[in-house]
Amino acid sequence: MDQPNTREELLEALRERTPGSGKVWQDAQRVVPGGLLSGARYFKPYPFFTERGEGPYIWDMDENRYLDCCMAYGVLFLGHRPSAVVEALNDQLERGTVYGTPHGLEVAFAEKLIECIPCADQILLCNSGTEATMQAIRLMRAYTGRDKIAKFEGGYHGWHDYGAWSIDVVPDEMGPADRPNAVPNSAGIPEPIEDTLLMLPCEESAFDLIEEHAAELAGVMIEPVFGGGTIPMSKEFLEKLRDVTRRTGVFLMFDEVITGFRMALGGAQEVHGIMPDLATYGKIIGGGLPVGAVGFAKEFESTVTDNDFSVFVGGTFSGNPFTLAAGNALLGHLMDNPQIYDELNAKGDFLRSGFNEFAQAKGLPATMTGIASLFQTHIKHPPVEKPRDLIGQHEDALNDLQLFLRLNGVFIPFLHLAFLSAAHSQQDVEEVLRIHQVSVEACLAMHQVT
Fold it and tell me: How many Å is the maximal CA-CA distance in the chain?
């Protein structure tokens, strides 16, 4: 198909493609602030509203089919409606969706998680990755009696008050590279929260800061692959981080909400052979339903069970049987079919290397980062090895790239963090690559970026 030459042509082509979504979008704005329940679902000229999903595809309400590379932001590791999960949900529906009491699936699910997660002797369950990181922060503070938590610039640990800091690249506010400022990513966060945070750079100077502040630090949290940019942290960096936190008596938390059960059954811990003190999970482990989990060493048990002063654990829907039926089926399927990882990771390698070879051969200011089945395109010449490397990329072109991709039949979320699933065939991945090549060239041409 001919590609639009101007932004208005691009937006008009999308309007013509999705008139039904346009009408629902108008209705949504009357009942929901901004018409969206999550800012991550924003698109121009308006979001498309989904009708259904199957395997690697998603359909909007105008019956346009897309190769889905959002996969509910990484949740749907097996694709839409995998039979193992659907069967488990149908079976559980006959027995009820939520009880408000303990049930046997809690034990079965927890046993599978602990078998797969290297650092976990025990787990706590909640309802989202955001809840999991909040719970992990509380555990570290309760155990140590210290209030301060360190996070890395560019890392994403949920949208609560202690996580929504310095996620995005904001050149005017970030401060020096070796001692970055803490920049809030939302209004409504009380200023005193900043006093409980230590912002770390993605540089080796971070290790000096940890040693300098060790006496007031309860823990350090890091994404092994940064959600803000899909930038993998090197094994060497993570090893040094493990060494300095162990030496200074500061807990190390891996946020594996994205990487857990995606890079491998044991996540980044297994891939890199590095054991944190605790780790957080969400997304994949719920089999498509809301879930969060914290896995930790047994030494944390007393912070939860001590009768005199314990960490409060609650949640009406935490560990509900409907979610755990789906999650238990999903984990069982992955444990029984470990070859899925080699096959899917090879497809991710094919996509990233194919795009980067194309961009390099054409001399295009574009690169694709990621690892395993994660990928993200940047409108910038390589290398992109840390969040600050993204300073200077053409933001308008980046924002329009996902519109070109959507027009050409690939759904990439607004944030550009993207995923392949086990449902994507090699032919699907080749089509995703082709559409990326066409879309990037058209987008760069429209913005006259060279």
Answer: 69
Question: What are 321-334's pLDDT values in tens digits?
Answer: 999 999 999 999 99
Of 60, 68, 255, 428, the catalytic one is 255
pLDDT 10s digits, 393-432: 999 999 999 999 999 999 998 777 899 999 999 999 999 9
Query: What DSSP designation does 34 have?
Result: G
DSSP string, 426-445: HHHHHHHHHHHHHHHHHHHH
Catalytic residue among 112, 283, 347, 380: 283
Report the C-alpha dihedral over residues 337, 342, 343, 347, rounded to 10 degrees: 150
pLDDT of res. 448? 92
**211, containing H or E segment:** helix 205-212
Active site residue 386: no
Residue among 156, 162, 281, 341 flagged as catalytic: 156
Report the SS3 class of residue 231.
strand
pLDDT at 300 over 90: no
d(Cα 9, Cα 320) in Å, to the nearest integer?
47
Identify the CA nearest to 283 among candidates 423, 161, 130: 130
Find the distance separating the first CA and the last CA of the chain, reported in whole Å: 23
Q: Which domains does the chain have, with CATH numbers?
A: 83-336 (3.40.640.10), 338-427+434-450 (3.90.1150.10)
- Spatial neighbors of 420 by CB under 8 A, at least 6 apart, are 69, 71, 344, 347, 348, 351, 373, 375, 429, 432
pLDDT of 160 reads 93
